[in-house]
Amino acid sequence: MRWNLIAVCSRWRQILLATPLVWRDVRIDHTQWTGENEYERFLYRLELQLSRSGSEQLQVQLFVLWGHFLEHRASSSTGWNISRRRPDLKKLAMILERAAPFGSWKTLNLISCDPALLEQMQLDRMGGFTNLEVLHVKSLNDPLLPIVNGTVTHSLKHFEYVQPHTPVDGQAFLLGISNILNCIIRLKLPSFIPGSTANLTLPPTITTLHLSGYSIPDTILPHVRILQMLSVKRREPPLIPGRFPNLTSLTLSTRGGVSSPPSTSITPLDLPYLEQLTTHL
Question: How confident is the model at residue 29 (pLDDT cuts 50, 70, 90)?
Answer without folding.
Answer: very high
